[in-house]
Automatic annotation (TrEMBL):
PROSITE patterns: GGDEF (PS50887), PAS (PS50112). Residues 318-450 form the GGDEF domain. InterPro entries: Diguanylate_Cyclase (IPR050469), GAF (IPR003018), GAF-like_dom_sf (IPR029016), GGDEF_dom (IPR000160), Nucleotide_cyclase (IPR029787), PAS (IPR000014), PAS-like_dom_sf (IPR035965), PAS_4 (IPR013656). This is diguanylate cyclase. The lineage of its organism: Bacteria, Pseudomonadati, Pseudomonadota, Gammaproteobacteria, Alteromonadales.
Amino acid sequence: MYRDIQQLANAIDTIIAYIDEERRFQFVNHAYEMFVDKPAVDILGKRVDEILDSESAEYVKPLHQRALNGEHVEYEQTITLANGRKRILNTRYVPMHDADSGKVSGFYAIIDDITSYISATDLMRTVHKIINQPGKKRKGKVISQLLELGNSYLQTEIGLVSEVDGNDYIVKYSDAIGQPIEPETHFPLGNTYCSVTLAEERVIAVTEAAKSAFFKGHPCYQTFELETYLGVPLTIDGELWGTLSFSSAAQRELPFDALEIELISLVASAIETILAEKRRLDELRQLAYFDPLTELSNRTSAIYQINERLKKQRQQGTPFYVAIADADHFKTINDRYGHQAGDRVLRKLAQVLKANIREHDLAARLGGEEFVLLIDSDNVAVAHKALERCRQQVHDNPVTLDDGTEIKYSISVGMTRTADKDEFLQIYQRADQALYRAKGAGRNCIVSAD
């Protein structure tokens, strides 16, 4: 009879164990062995607190006592094994009575591992929120949350969303257990498993990379020894953009099933939606705040940034310098060489201005051939030196057209120091008046309004 029960218990997927009055294991089926990753010989006779971690052992102790008192017990809880593995379990305790005395001699633990179901539900709920919530709430943190949920669902250690630019693999978002992988970390594409995912243009899933036809001897395996990998191509506006991937050094217990692959593909679709929306917002922001010809900040953005700096000045008492730079004889350049040549002059001028100020300073195009510079210093010598460097570099670097024609040009600059109660218009008017005087002084020079 016992052998028949043993065979029956081993034939089903439900996890079963018999625990006696001393809370020691007297019977486990194959599913329980797989659950704790130990053979029966290493489980039988052991106490429950030798199989579970201390916190989980304390949690189930009063539940065991209820079962030993003859009560049928059922509960759902995340349980951690002694090896640190966490699972969400639906558990029932069925008391067994001694045939002679009628006393409870122990109980059967009948366990369903519902981790995948719960994780899948959480994942689908989060994806649903992403698809239906207002766009303004879709931020990078949502992608990070999806990566965290994906790692939990698949029992992997590393979740990445990465962009591919030529042979450059660039991590954009990550969730990694242990050693973090920072955004903007770059790897050669060929050294990543994702190179295979992109080449195949489909989902790639392996649980033993060392024996995989795709990854045996792969540079990524040789460097990181990642055994488990699931990668999904990400497409934006019909073009391959990068990948979503989950991986870990340990071999996964079971191969990825169709449900897991389908759910992670759904996650990939949600991430594609977020990334596509971000791209559109970035394009709109570019149009709204940047000059398309020179790629510098435009008038709207320049006024905003100067006003923000004025707020700081009012709070901290830190004035700064603003200058207006204008290309000399620009109408003549347009008339003589054409508007395309004039555009090339403006682009070159913008490059020179940006290259010769500090990163926290500002160069912007106000319109036409007029530019504004914010030099974030209240030291006149520092400001004048930066502007003189710009003026000299413009003078020394003519624009060369396709036919070899050189266009030599120069700039005139009017500068002013901000005052306590200044508004942008007052600053602009002072700098513009100084610019007018620079033009009158023969051009190709700097004049201060102060």
